[in-house]
Amino acid sequence: MDNQPKLDLKKVKIWFESLPEKRKFEIHQATRMTYHSCSIEGNSLTENDTFNLIVQELYKQEVIKT
Q: pTM value?
């Protein structure tokens, strides 16, 4: 079972919105590539779900440093 505290999604959204446009573009581009690669393998996540997972993971790595 995952014992990590739940992310505050409002903080994640504020963090993402504060990023430079170039960084946001790179994240969106990585999301599209990941989504299309995973869909070939039969992943059932939507592109939006994939984006949310990527942004949340980046937030953990860059802001809370987990």
A: 0.81
